[in-house]
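The authors assume throughout that readers already know how a fold can be written as discrete tokens. Each protein is reduced to its one-letter sequence and a matching series of backbone shape codes. I therefore recommend that a typical entry be quoted early in the introduction. For illustration, here is how one protein appears when written out as sequence plus structure tokens:
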Amino acid sequence: MSDDDILDYILQFEGGFTNNPADHGGPTKYGITAADYGRYLHLPGVASAAQVSEMAREEAVAIYKQEYIALPGFSAVSDGTLKLVIVDSGVLFGTGRACRWLQQALKVSSDGVIGKDTRDALDACQDPLKLARRVLALRLGAIADIVARDTSQVVFLRGWVSRATSLLGML
């Protein structure tokens, strides 16, 4: 699975413009937040809702490739399906958290940075699909914690669980 395949999959879920008051990311389009888009546009702050609503798909893809694959070091994940799980987790819950879940599943120091120890553990991994299932288990546990801590997030529960089970179906 290539990076473009991964992004095509993610964009099936991350569609048009939304501005749900319960979404801590604020206005989004293609899953890209106003803050991410503002950085992409080199604005001094977040992009406006109007700017986000006008974002082109190609811009979203460029942001995903830079902010959700290259910068967090997810390019180090050679198995495409595992990479999909990690990138998708980063899109929904932040790349640092996705990296920590990967590190916890690999049983290496969980610092949120893909460094030598994480890369070595990835290289030594004999069963990337089992590793992906471990990451998804951590993700599902975190979803339960998020909703328990902040009941305003229950509106997203069905989508989060549906997306995780969709990934499980690929493993």
